[in-house]
Design goal:
about 110 residues; mainly alpha; 2 domains; about 0% strand; disordered N terminus; disordered C terminus; DASH complex subunit DAD3; cell division; mitosis; cytoskeleton
């Protein structure tokens, strides 16, 4: 029951961030927050389903399905991590260009 309380708290935090009174959230940020909320709901549903499966007898079919699911979740996790890293890297390059410390533009224009 602690997990559901935690999920409800995180969801209410997301809803507080995206409430009507919050003028600091852009439409794109709102879409990202909505996707994270949807992902959170899917993960809660997955957790519930896995709890149901683990309480019953384990069959070969269930074990194979869980292995496939584990690989897919690991792939999604890796892709999300790479996306976040790419955004952070791009943000760092943009900050470097704003400070005038990046000379790559002059070389790229001549090539």
């Amino acid at each position: 029951m602690d997990d559901s309380t935690t999920h409800n708290d995180s969801r209410s935090t997301l809803l507080n961030l995206t409430g009507q009174g919050s003028s600091g959230v852009s439409p794109l940020e709102q879409e990202v927050l909505d996707e994270y909320e949807r992902l959170s709901g899917n993960m809660r549903e997955l957790s519930s389903t896995l709890a149901t499966l683990s309480s019953g007898p384990m069959t070969l079919e269930i074990a194979e399905g869980l292995r496939l699911l584990e690989r897919k979740v690991a792939s999604v996790y890796t892709l999300m991590k790479a996306s976040v890293y790419s955004i952070v890297l791009q943000q760092g390059q943009m900050d470097g260009m704003d400070e005038g410390g990046f000379d790559g533009d002059a070389d790229q224009g001549n090539g």
